[in-house]
Amino acid sequence: MKKPFIIFHPITIFVSSIVAIVLTYFLYLNWYMKVKGNIDEIAARFGVDQKVVADPNSLFMFITTAILVLGIIVGLVVIFTYYQKTTQLYRLQENFINNFTHELKTPLASIRLYLETFKKYDVSKEEREKFIDYMLKDSNRLDNYVNQILQVGNIENKEKNYKKEWKDLRILTDEFLENNHHLFIEGKISVKGEVKVELMYPVDRQLFEMLLMNLISNSFRYNESREKGLEISFKIEGKNLCIGFKDNGIGFLSKNKKKIFKKFYQVGKAENCTAKGTGLGLYLVQQIAKIHGGKIKAESQGIGAGSTFSVYLPFPPKRKMV
Known about the structure:
Helix Hairpins, 7 helices, two-stranded antiparallel ribbon, Heat Shock Protein 90, alpha+beta, single chain
């Protein structure tokens, strides 16, 4: 989207409008005080009673005018704030569409290349298995993107009912890693836990696995280390079960701590292909945590220092949560 000339920039116009309104009010006030002063001087010179020339409603008019001016300013601020949020959402959606198209084309081009290789060349069994693994990884990547978009629609549907079952979250995580180990071969995942009791919790298995998928995928996608690593931990903190995801990835600035959970927010820019993912992963993770009565926090010491995402769930949970 083309940036407007600075004179016609919305912020410039907004500030100018506020200044113009305030200045107009004070110019009017100054003009009125001068006129009143002249009238008072003439009345004093000719001995006219002040009550005859004074307007008893002048104070009321000043207060009323000031309230109206304040109302106009507040209205402009509300309209401007709404405009800014709408513009920001448009930019995020535009960035999402551009980057998502790129994210779809990359695995599709990869799968097509391997299929053309099978068609043109007689590859060995080992190479064929290796290519098939790559294609499976790319197809799972596409499937994850599609599921993210579908789940956003489902999660934002307030009438959606989720099928929660009591599961041990530690066992559920181990099963997920075992069933999907081929998706995370680019890095090393270790699971640690200080908790020695059963971590039974009512969860929607599909949503919980999507939470795991997004957090684990992000830890490797945003990671430039030679040996990518992720540590998943389980521990009790007060009245909460904390599931931590600590990686040695690129990290993030503290000012982006809250932004990264916003819908469509992406690190980098689509124009120069530095943006990665769909911008929906962490938004989904946050919503999934809320659906299960919990929350998620993100911490990082800065760029290059890795990240830690902590999911907090009330523990022990109450049976009425089912």
